[in-house]
Amino acid sequence: MFVKIKTFHRKKIVAVFALCMAAMLFLIGRLGYLMLLRADYYSEKAQDLHERERSIKAARGKILDCNGKVLADNKTVCTISVIHSQIKEPEKVIDVLTEELGMERDQVKKRVEKNSSIERIKTNVDKQTGDKIREYDLAGVKVDEDYKRNYPYGNLASKVLGFTGSDNQGIVGLEVKYESILKGTDGQILTMTDARGVELSDTGEGRKEPVSGKNLILSLDANLQEYAQQAAYQALEQKQADSVSIILMRPGNGEILAMVNVPEYDLNDPFNLKKSTNGMSQQEIQDERNKMWRNGCINDTYEPGSTFKIITASAALEEGVVTPEDTFSCPGFRIVDDRRIRCHKTTGHGSETFVQGVMNSCNPVFIEVGQRLGTDAFYRYFQQFGLLEKTGIDLPGEAGTIMHQKKDIGPVELATISFGQSFQITPIRLAATVCSLINGGHQITPHFGVEVREDDGTLLETLSYKEGKQIVSEQVSKTMRAILEKVVSEGGGKKAYIEGYHIGGKTATSETLPRSANKYISSFLGFVPAEDPRILGICIINNPQGVYYGGTICAPVMRTVFENILPYLGIEKEAAQETDAVRIMDQVEHLLSAE
Amino acid sequence: MRTKSGRGDVLLVCMVLFLVVFGLAVLYSTGSYNGSVRFGDAFYYMKKQFFAAALGMLAMYLISCMDYHIFEKYAIAAYLISLALSTLVLFAGNAYNGSRRWLSLGPLSFQPSEFAKLAVILFLARMVGRQKKKRNSFLNLVFVIALVLPIVALVGTNNLSTAIIILGIAVIVVFVSDKRYMQFVWIAAAGAGMMALFLGMESYRLERIAIWKNPEAYEKGYQTIQGLYAIGSGGLFGRGFGESIQKLGFVPEAQNDMIFSIICEELGFVGATILMLVFLVLIWRFMVIAVHAPDLFGSLIAAGAMGHIAIQVILNVAVVTNTIPNTGITLPFISYGGTSVLFLLSEMGLVLAVSRWQSEKKCI
């Protein structure tokens, strides 16, 4: 019934088996290729697929003043969230969170019971509360720590320091300028997840530690800043002014010790305009904020007025077109082209030397000096003194000089430029140039940043700035210091005089555009000690009410500041007689050298 | 000549038991994630498979105790039943993943195509084993192939892969029963030509080829790529049993066709090679049993089973390693599928029954 099996059947069965075995051995070979030779390629791809990165924020570097006082640091805050699927005792979770966070029970209940993968309950919870909640050890409740920028002095130097945004990134001021130093590198937690993105609890976490940002050490001195801010606020109130700015800096190296722009704003609450925003569009609100954050010393330009005469005088002395002893005559005005340009003293100063002309801040004298210089030379000195460039200060948004094109400078323009009108520069530009003119003649770059250090104090980097170029001779610089000291001791800057100190300076009053508005900017620029300036200060009052002469209102502010800070800076008063003795010695020396 | 030895092939039994137990363990490991995500029960797939395997073991034992010759009488009937069931499934079947492959009876579901494979092995063994007249002509071949074409066509409408397996079994049975070799080379050539024509007819089939060549460039290459990631992650010794990450939703339906990739990831090249060798030992035992069978009917049953297991293992591993374009073929004993395990074990029972009737003449 059944067919017998034959030899060829057997052979064929063996043949089929041989074929199958060959195929399977080939596949084992293929497996070996994939799993051993290509393993790195595929396992890396798989790894990328499985790993989810969760970043750990790096602490931002601190900003410290020259005495190590912390101006900006970080506060640890917590974010409380719940993971719905991991909650075991929902009632208890609701109770604890309601109590500890001080929130409405219904609100907490709604979020806890919401069926989402992760629900945020509250952010910016202080660390103490966060730790307390963590101690309850409730399943499904997550307490994540985060950093928030904190400014211990509130509004101190607000327009210099700036603040950070929600991602801890600098937005304005030094915070944004030194972003790369302060920022640090975020760390990462690598977790494995399944295809839905759910973290696998039993897989080991790879962790890359965050690297904290570096600390920035400033030349700014919180004490000086505070003195200056107080004085500025006082002047702001007394004169009902729009704003008052004060800069204190070292003429020798451009380090800024204080930069005040009142009204300042609260760095810990920088978006609060402190006034009703009802009826304002989003754009208007943002414009108001930008205005509030603006640093007038750097971002805004103004007509410097008579303080600019320092520059005209230096240029003329350097060019040799005038000597201190040259005599001029002021009838109270001067005709340039068809225009009659008045002196502030309409009756005229009469016959005066160049030095007296500076002391009197006499416009006709400077018009003539400007004419002696001529457009070409004047423009050349503009360039030489850096007036056409930005100072390069380490703050963002420095405004450039607004100046006539050289070809557009006619006799009238030349005359007005000579006494600081018809063009605009920033206060910091003026201060930086004057620093160079009185420090022996070498160029400086105004700056705040001095050093970069680790949190433990290790010095990482000393910041350096462009400086050293001689822009005026030492002799001219010395002459200028002497002339400007006379301005304070005997001339228009008398109100800045402090018994026992040699103070150099110059006042200014300029009318803002449009002239018809009758708004003024008053200023005073002074430095101490006049022979070897260690500190230079400039005070600018914007739109003062009532008396608006710089010599009357700004010089006293500067005097108050100097009185307070000079002893602190270790600049000692000299005994009156000694002062005279030195002066006599100087004169003798001068006579000898002249012979 | 026909002597009952009384004992089945012990090594075959061992290999089958190993595969069943290993398969359940791997299925638990692989299916626990999908089971708990979809059904809230990590043991979901493993439990169902366990019952099918238990039932299959019982069937295997009972069948192995029987005289396999009595199945000759029912071979044609079994074939007709499988035709009927395959027709029925076209109209009353349950669709899963877009294909109608299951017949439901209360809580039990049944995949007729799995039964069809066993039925075809029996049917062909009966038809070829009975031929007394020497018809070693080409017509004879065409006749045998023609016999299975109805079931190939029926199964092929919604399960092309199984149809190919059935056709493959038929070709192997015919090849074994025929004396010549050369004509099979022609058949292979003709088959290749047909295949090319078949692929060219539909653009989506050509797309499969393109995906095969460069799976990373296509969205539809996702399953293949994920399988390769799993295999590549295994390395020499693997991540360890139960430690696969690719099974966590990355490899779609990891407990089905792609289960071998998870075995590679967890047990490494060493584990995967051992599994391949176990399958090789299994088909080697089939060959030994086929060669030593007392008659052509028994020999062809063993040869058919050998072809069946070999084709499925080779195609499955080839697909998972992207050696050939993707097509859905399960790994015998390991992949999830109750009907598959039940009938595979029944088939093993049949081969074991044959192994108890060994011919005295031992040539291999």
From TrEMBL, chain B:
Predominant location category: membrane
Catalytic activity, reaction form: [GlcNAc-(1->4)-Mur2Ac(oyl-L-Ala-gamma-D-Glu-L-Lys-D-Ala-D-Ala)](n)-di-trans,octa-cis-undecaprenyl diphosphate + beta-D-GlcNAc-(1->4)-Mur2Ac(oyl-L-Ala-gamma-D-Glu-L-Lys-D-Ala-D-Ala)-di-trans,octa-cis-undecaprenyl diphosphate = [GlcNAc-(1->4)-Mur2Ac(oyl-L-Ala-gamma-D-Glu-L-Lys-D-Ala-D-Ala)](n+1)-di-trans,octa-cis-undecaprenyl diphosphate + di-trans,octa-cis-undecaprenyl diphosphate + H(+)
Membrane topology: Multi-pass membrane protein
Domain of life: Bacteria
BP-aspect Gene Ontology terms: cell division
Pfam families documented for this protein: FTSW_RODA_SPOVE
Function: Peptidoglycan polymerase that is essential for cell division.
Similarity comment: Belongs to the SEDS family. FtsW subfamily.
Name assigned to this protein: Probable peptidoglycan glycosyltransferase FtsW
Species of provenance: Faecalicatena fissicatena
